[in-house]
Amino acid sequence: MVIVEFSNGEIKEVEVNKVRDLYKILNLRENSVLITRGDELLTEDDILNDGDKVKIISVVSGG
Fold first, then answer.
1. Cα 56-60-63 angle, rounded to 5 deg
2. Could you tell me which of 1, 37, 52, 62 has the fewest CB atoms within 10 Å of its CB?
3. pTM above threshold 0.85
4. What is the DSSP annotation of the chain?
5. So what's the pLDDT on residue 63?
6. How many CB atoms lie within 10 A of CB 41?
7. From CA 47, how far away is CA 42, in angstroms rounded?
């Protein structure tokens, strides 16, 4: 299981192997969030391991 923390403090546990699967399971758009593990920014091809803790960070644009 991968522990996912959202920017609002919500925490979920999900069973995934790749970041790509995390986007699908959580119904996230790739251009609207960043996913980090510690200080590492993850890409959709990165592997997730059992026990990993990742954070979902909302991307905000302004102008």
1. 170
2. 62
3. yes
4. -EEEEETTS-EEEE--SBHHHHHHHTT--TTTEEEEETTEEP-TT-B--TT-EEEEEE-----
5. 65
6. 10
7. 9
